[in-house]
TrEMBL record:
Keywords: Signal. Residues 30-263 form the PBP domain. Pfam families: PBP_like_2. InterPro entries: PBP_domain, Phosphate_ABC_transporter. This is Phosphate transport system substrate-binding protein.
Length: 290
């Protein structure tokens, strides 16, 4: 009799254990660990959003890992990452591959307007650059423009704007956007091409140091010169404005989708603005007078 009671008790305990284990393993946006892949060019804003999320949800841990944009996208397709930050438009073939391999509808979650900017040393006499000069320079054996590497978001985006493939363009390479800025004075005849978020934080000491070393060139387009400022990013007037967005392969509401939702809320958009970028989702500020 006692053995029968023990068996029954063990049976119910095993059911209870399995039930608790399933509950613990259920999707959760407010606890657990996740890695997000981002190109170096927009690492700063990604880290700021990750820190904001972890402050709001202390039981979460988000690791921000830098990886070239195209390689990060491949890792997402191959289920080696749950979320990636992108800037360039995907081709119809890439969208098809994403939907087939991830088994989700392609729905990019846009959260910020960034820019690719053209910079020269602070003492350079050059004051602006035209679209024609950029197009011609990217075809010249002089390799006038310095990028942070092949497969980088900056190169991909400029190539897309010029309706070219990156392999068809001619350019120089200095690995790392910060390295480009710091070493640009050694090459006075060259023009650095970096992401705005590299030094966009208004009150950050490192950003201030980098800004003090270079001059950002306005881009001449259709008879007008445009700076990469808030107004021109918001109106998409600056020719090399790019919209940053998240892609995930997470089908449930776990940390990846929780992080995406947070980044697109008012709090997340305030973090984007503090990074010196243009928030993609604008919130009206209403004041009631009594």
């Amino acid at each position: 009799m006692r053995s029968s009671v023990k068996i029954v008790m063990l049976f119910f305990l095993s059911i209870l254990y399995v039930g608790c284990k399933k509950k613990d393993e259920s999707p959760s946006y407010n606890k657990g660990e996740m890695t997000i892949l981002t190109d170096e060019s927009f690492k700063s804003v990604t880290e700021a959003l990750a820190e904001g999320y972890m402050i709001n949800y202390p039981e979460t841990k988000i690791n921000v890992v830098t990886k070239k944009e195209d390689l990060g996208f491949l890792d997402l397709l191959n289920d080696k990452a749950r979320i990636v930050v992108m800037s360039r438009d995907l081709s119809s073939e890439e969208i098809k591959t994403y939907e087939e391999q991830v088994d989700l509808k392609f729905l990019p979650s846009k959260f910020a307007a960034d820019a690719v900017v053209f910079v020269v040393p602070k003492d350079s006499p050059k004051e602006s650059i035209s679209m024609a000069e950029i197009e011609q320079g990217m075809q010249s054996n002089d390799k006038k423009f310095i990028f942070d590497g092949a497969n980088s978001s900056n190169l991909n985006f400029v190539a897309q704007k010029l309706k070219k493939q990156p392999k068809d363009l001619k350019f120089s390479i200095i690995p790392g956007s910060k390295n480009i800025i710091e070493e640009l004075s050694k090459y006075p005849d060259k023009i650095g091409v970096v992401g705005l978020n590299t030094f966009s934080r208004p009150y950050d000491q490192e950003s201030e140091k980098l800004r003090s070393m270079i001059k950002i060139l306005p881009v001449e387009y259709k008879g007008n010169k445009y700076n990469a400022d808030f107004e021109n990013l918001r109106k998409m007037n600056y020719p090399f404005t790019r919209v940053l967005y998240f892609l995930t392969n997470e089908g449930n509401f776990n940390i990846a989708n929780g992080f995406i939702r947070f980044s697109c809320t008012q709090l997340g958009q305030m973090i984007v603005q503090k990074e010196g970028l243009q928030p993609y989702n604008l919130y009206r500020r209403e004041v009631q007078m009594r």
